[in-house]
Specification:
By secondary structure, this protein is of the alpha+beta class. It contains 27 helices and 20 strands. It is globular and about 95 Å long.
Amino acid sequence: MIDTINRLSYWFTPRRFGLLLALMVFASYPQVILGMQTFVARDYGFFAYPLALFQKDTFWRGEIPFWDAFNNCGVPFLAQWNTMPLYPPSLIYLLLPLTWSLSFFCLLHLWFGGVGMYLLARKWTGNDFAGAFAGTTFCFSGLTLNLLMWPSHTATWAWMPWVVMAVESAWCAHACESSRKILIAAICGGLQMLAGGPEIIFFTWLVLLALWIQQLINNDFPRKTFWRFPVMVALVAALAAAQLLPFFDLTAHSQRQSGYADLRWSMPGSGWANFLVPMAFGHVLSEGIFFQDGQYWTSSYYLGFAPLMLALLAFWKVRNGRVWSLGTILVIAVIFALGANTPIFPAIRHVFPQLGFVTYPVKYLLLVTFIAPLLAAFSLAQLRELNAQKSIVAIGIVLLVLLVAVLGWQWKSQADDVDAAMANGIERIPFLVLTAAALYILAQKPKLDFPRTASVILILLAWVDVLTHEPTQNPTVPPYVYEWRLASQKLAMNPPPALRASRAMVSPKAYMEFIQRALQDPAKNFLAKRLGFCGDCNLLDGVPKVDGFFSLTTRENNDLFLLMYQATNEFPHLEDFLGVSQITAPDEIYNWQPRKTFLPLVTIGPKPVFLDDADALRMLTDTHFDASKVVILPPEARTLVAVTNQTTATFTKFYFTGRNMRIRVDVPAPALVVVAETFYHNWHATVDDKEAPIFRANYGFDAIQVPEGLHDIQLVYRDRAFDVGAMISAVAWLGCLVGCRILRPKPE
C-alpha cells in the first residue's frame, strides 16, 4: 500500500495548492479584493498609502520621485528604499485605481510568498503535502499578517522563500545548468532588493549564508564551485545598485549614523506566552488592534498550534543538516528578539554595533516565522518514519499544560484585560486538541482516504487558528477615506499652505496626541487624524508641512525636529523662517489657526553670522532671532562669502517642482538668497548658468551667494549615486535577461 504521506504528496500539486491558497486569501479579505473596502490601520494609512499616491503622481508626470518637498521641509524620497520607486511590480498600483490596487498589491504578494514557501519546502522535503502546509502557515501567521500594513515589507517578505530556493539551487547545480540558475537567482534577489525591506533582506541572506557554510563543510556541493555564492551576491548588488547607492548615501548623512540602535519594542520577557495565548499580557488599543504591553511594532507573532507542534517535533526527532542549521538560527533569533530584556543581545550588539541596523529587536522573530513552517514541513514529510504518535501526544500535553499555566499567570496578574486574555486562551484549546488529533491520524497507517481528509483539515485548522487568534490585525474601511483633498474641503485654512508659498505645522501637543491617543473605530480614527495631517496624510491634500513620517531624514533635519517637538518652549521666529502659515489650534488636533508673521520660503539679503552647530541651534531658538535680517552659516563658509551686511533686494520670481527651483532676484549689492528647504548635498545651484556653491544655512537649509544685479538662480536635484547605480543596474539587468534567454534549455 502506498505510504500515506507520499499519497498525499501526489494530491497537493502546485496548481491545486495555488488555487487553494488563493481561495484562502480571498476568503480572508473578500471585501478588499472586491474593492468594497481598503486597508487603513497604522502605517498603511499614515505612511504607505500617502507615499504611494505621491509616487503615482510623479509617475504620471513622467518624473522619478527623487525628492518629497511636502514633508520635513523637503526629504529624499527615492533613497528611502522602502518607498519602492524602482520595484517593477509597483506598476500594479501606479496604473490601477490606488484605493483598490495598493491593498490588492499586498494580498497578491501574500499569495506569492505562500507559493514560494510551498515550492521551497517541497524541494527540501520532496513532499507536496509538507510544502502545502508550509506555504499556508507562512502566509497565515500573526507576523506575516502584521506586515500587510507595509507594502514594501510584504513584497520583500514574499520574495524571501523564492530567493532562498533559487540561490541554493544555483550553488548546487550541475555545471551544464549552473550559469542560467545563477542568473535566475540573481534576478530573484535583485527584485527582493528593489522591494525595499532592509531587515528582511538581511535575514534572507543570513539564512543563505548559514546554509552555504553548512553545506560547504559537509561537502554537499563541490568545493571548487564555492565561488557561485559570492558571485550571486555581487550580481544582486549590481542589479539593485540604482536603489542601493542612493540609500547608502542617504544613510551616511542621516540620523541613523554609526552606532545608531533602538532597543525599544523588544519581545517582552513574558513574550513566549503569546505563542500559546496570543492576547496574554497586552491590551486592545487603537483601531481595535491588540498589542503586547511594551511592544508595539507587531500586533502578533502567533504561529498557530500546528506549525508550533510540528516545529517542536522537528527539534526533537528529525535528524537533518538543514533542520540543525535552521533550528540554530531560530533559537538565536528568539534570544535576540528579547533585546534589552536579556543581557545577551546588548552585549553582542556592543561587540557588533552593525546589529543596530535592525531597529527593533522584536523583528528577529521574522526569522522564527520563516523557519518554523520549514521545520514543520520536515516533520510532516517524515511523520510515519518518526513513529510520532506518542511524540505528538506528549507535545500536545506539554503545550496544554503551558497554556493553562499562562492563563493562571494572567489571572494572578489581574491586568486590565484579564478577561479577554482568559477567553482568548480558552478559545485556543480546541485548536490545540484538534490539531493534535489530525496529526495523530496522519501519523498512523492509512485507511481508505481518511488521511487525505485529515490533511485538508490540518491545513484549514492552521488557517482558521491564525485568522481567529485575536481581533483583526488589518481592519478595513470604505475607500472614501482616501478621497483627494478631503481634509482641505473640511478645513478653513486662510491662507492655505501651498508649495512655494508656506507650510503647515503640527504642534508638539498635537504630535503627541497622534501617538498616544486613538479612536477604536478605524475609519473615524483615520479621518480625525487626517484632518490634523498626521504622519504623511498631508500628501493626500497636497499640503506641505514641517514634519513628516519617514525612516530616514538628514541629521540636521532630525536635530531641528527634536528641538521643536521635544522642547516645552515655542520657537515662533524659527517657525516664521520655516514659512509656517498654519499651526494646530490649541483646542483640537484637527483644527488649525493662521500665523501672520511667517516669512516667504525664499529670503533675500540677510546679514551672515558664522557659528558652529551648537551655537547655531541656540541662536535659532533665541527670541531675538529674525531670519529676515540674519542668516547663520557654518564657520568654514567665512572665507567663501563676500557678503557682510544686510541687503535690500527685489524678489521677482520663484518656481518650484519636485527637483527644480528657479529664483529671480535683483540686488543692489552682493547678497545671500536663503531657501527654507532642507539642505542636502544632491542639490546643485547655478547663478546665471554658472555653478555656485550652496551653503548650509540656519543649521539645515540652503543659501546661495549672488553678486550685484539681476540674476537667475536655479537649484537642481542631481543624485550622482543614482546615476552611477542606474548605469550599473542597466548593464546587469540587460546581461542577466539576455543570458537567461540564451542559456534556456533547448527543446529536444
